[in-house]
Amino acid sequence: MKIRKPDLEIRPKVLALLVSAFPKSRYEAGLVEQFHVNETPIHEWACIHINRVIAYIAFSNAYNGSKICGLHLAPLAVAPQFQRQGVGSELMKFALRQESIKNSPVFVLGDPKFYRRFGFESCTIPICPFDKNNKHFLAIGNPPTSRFIVGYEPEFGPR
Predict the structure, then answer these.
(1) Distance separating alpha carbons of residues 45 and 15, to the nearest angstrom
(2) In this model, does residue 144 exceed pLDDT 80?
(3) pTM as predicted
């Protein structure tokens, strides 16, 4: 198993992984595809096993108004046949150790039980526009002390 930045050759495999990992949603694949089409600056890694993408993680900018205030983790995906085997956890640990990630606040909207294992904590600020009462909104390295609604890249908008 190797972890590396996706290149043009494996991008279609990343999209196929996202479709298989989220069978009831095309949102995640569309999000990543739009990041690439629009050349939105993101940090991303794919886990490769026998020339197949089995996991993927991406981080995009988080905003306080027009100022970058951290990163959003989305999506994190693991191929169904590799889930619950530690692949996603290894990819997460790898990503959180990278210079481009470890020195920034990182926000995620997801299962608190899963993300707490990596040091994420529930947060009341900033306010997530996609999660009433920030029930599933977590952060790691979160220094904000003032209330604001955290912004996302335009690709997160409605589809």
Answers:
(1) 13
(2) no
(3) 0.94
